Amino acid sequence: MQQNDKILTEVGTNEWQVVVFLLGEQYFAINVDKTREILRWPGSRDVPQTHRAMRGITTIRGEVIPLIDLRVYLDITPGVELENSKLIVAEFNKMKLGFMVDAVDRIYRIDSDELDASLTGTFLGENALYVIKREGRNILLLDYERIVQVVNPSLAEQFSLDNGISEEISSSLGDLDQYKILVAEDSPLIRKLIQGALTQGGFHNFELVGHGKAAWDRLAEDGDEFDILLTDIEMPKMDGLTLTRRLKEDPKLAHIPVIVFSSVMAEDIKRKAQSIGADAQITKPEMHRLLETVVELLGKADKNKKAS
Questions:
Q1: Phi, psi of 94, deg, nearest 5
Q2: Which H helix or E strand runs over 192?
Q3: What pTM, to 2 d.p., does this model score?
Q4: Which of 4, 83, 131, 233 is within CB 3.0–4.6 Å of 240 for a Cys-Cys bond?
Q5: Average pLDDT of the residues of the chain
């Protein structure tokens, strides 16, 4: 499957697509926007002293990519021989890698409302974010960002900030407690990292929610005004593009700057975010740039208030 095989959806309709695949007897899913292509098993070369789920590396069209065997990572007995495995080549967080699976089923168009997070962090464990119920199946949508960081802990360093530099970035704003920041992010791991980055930058007045609907409800409440919104794109109940579109179409909220902070920032996603009024688009894990952009947009909003 090449990227151009994806089903197109309109911007801000709360719809997106997932590739459904099989590990053992269980169905799983990954967002189509994270998926570049699906290949037959290409073979691999071992890499010593790595996580047990690291199958090694392979070369695809001249590009070396690491391979993660999701069956090993999740302790699932493979349903096929190694040479019959499929490889999902994914790209997110500014990296490309391959996920080894038993078989690929199909693409589903889903609505964010179909993502059931009621068991997240409890019975589903830390690796699965949602259950998608479709055609009698319970399909698990995994937290791929967390999986990659567990397999390669050094990647977590990309989300960290130097304390001295962080404070210097935000020093131009004066009293940072005057600003109220709303963060919409479904991954518990990324929420924690954003919280740490904002705190390092000197911000303390912020609120973190797990999906777009919760963010919209907070924005729409009377008597509580936020100065900036940071939002992921892939989220249950309401995705980040739908959230951004609604905010920018509301006369009472349209002045609030919006930063789209997502693991997937392909050109078509950037165009979609720009078309609905997002003020900035940043690819995870650019935490330094995220903090810089928060400060820049808050400073610009202050100047606009004084000018009016």
A1: 60, 35
A2: helix 188-200
A3: 0.83
A4: 233
A5: 87
